[in-house]
Amino acid sequence: MTGYLNLILRLSIWFLLTANFGITNIIIGICIALLLPRHRSSGALTDWLRALGEIIVAIPQAYFEAVEIILRPHPHEAITMEHVKPQRTPGLIFLDIFLITFTPKTIVLKYHEQGYYEVHRVQRRQQP
Known about the structure:
The protein is α+β, with helices and mostly antiparallel strands.
């Protein structure tokens, strides 16, 4: 089942990059998605479902944060380190980075192979 999710993720990225849903582009996208190397890992279906649930929650949160930034400016910035959840596959790491970057107040600056993300945040107040 996770093989299908990886294929869907690869095709989604392809369509986001090309912004073309023509039949030729779909065939090329499927070929590329199938030819890319696969990582053998223990990515459980529950991890994928949890990540997809987090995406559904992140959409209204992003709108709320955008309105909040417009109404009350956030003049302070901070860079924090967030740990990667244990045993994450490359696809799930991509989804984590997407979720963090999707909301207007945060963006992932760098993914460190040691197991953490470098995250830039805008904040309303200076944190001690």
